[in-house]
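Request: Have a read of the protein record below and say how the chain folds.
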Amino acid sequence: MPESFVRAVGHFAYVWGWPMVSMINRRTALTSVPEPGLRGGVLPNAPLGRVCMLTDYIPAGQRFVACTNQDVLYGFGFGNLDEQPAVFQIPDFGDRFWVAAAWDHRTDSFAQLGKQYGTKPGFYAVVGPNWKGGLPEGISGSFRSSTALAAFCPRVFIEDTPEDRAKVMELLPYVTVYPLDQFDGTMRADDWANVPTFPVPGEVSDGEVHWVDPAKFFDQLPEVLDTVPPLPGEEALYQQFRALLAAADASSEVRQTLVEVAQEAEKEIITPLLRWEYNGPPAGNGWFSPKNNSAFGTDYLTRAAIARSNMFENAPQETKYIFTDTDIDGVQLHGSHGYTVRFPAGQLPPVNGFFSMTLYNKHHFYFENDLGRYSLGTKNTDLAYGQDGSLTLYVGNTAPDGAPTSNWLPAPADGFSLYIRAYWPQQPILDATWTPPRVERSD
């Protein structure tokens, strides 16, 4: 193969396969525990087929998953659904908002479980593409993944009050996922408040854990090709990628070229995808929002961008994600300035669930501050509204003079981004007739 051809196909293979190699490495790292527990005391880990649930908001110091929120209690885990289906146990949440996501190896969402679906309490199985067994009596429904590898993430909304926390703690033991062969038709209870802590493997930096190693990428790509069936029309891609890998097996020069290609693609393509402008089309006023999150199909660029910047998004009808790195003038948000984010009266994000606006530092993690405040939204019942019914949020490194502290979102002294979540969005958000607020400098 000419070197130019190796580089051309190799660059494309890197973008195409990056999210799926990330899935492999996350599965390996986050399931290597004997029982559900917390990695480093902060991130839920569990053996294959299980989840572990948090009993509080995810802490600010974790670096395993970027762009988490502090509106829900998270659970997380992985399964090999061809070897053993998993059961999502759903208690009676009453009027509380909740959603339980499941993603296949491509990071596409395939289960519809949540308040917005009218899901009733019960037991729901998720099965792999090649699993052929029968489901026992008592299973309320099932969803089939397109791949054996799947990730699970129940989310339960919690208000930031002692009273609501007490109510959630009564429900939480019954929110769980476990292998089908453990199903006996009765509601099990897991004591999530008393799970073990496991050490953090490797070093923790300011950014997200590097889940893809360019030097090893093309050694891991065969597992993707062998376990992720091609989409209609992708058969030729698979042939090209396999031919490339065969050439690398036969030639050390091709192998070395592919390592160089991977390193180049990581730096020149994947790293810039952290910028929100690459994560979806414009949504108005300098914000961006994907239209096909967790339903990417052959949109390889958006899938790679979201895997790099914000892995594991819900489907659009579950959550609309709207984000920006800049103010209304297109200038990078920076803590040396103050900003106002004003929602005119009647123009809060139209949702049936909840909304929040979270601030992330340049690495897409919380900016740790004395208030322990990383977002503002539905759960903040002390927000001060204007006499005309508008809501103005203040963003900056120092509290704004004369503005209510309850409406202030602390920012780092350098670059940052803003991120609106609209859980169970109403149609104006889905069809983009609702416009996000202006982010304006106030100094």
Notes: The domain at 36-195 is CATH 2.60.40.1610 (Immunoglobulin-like).
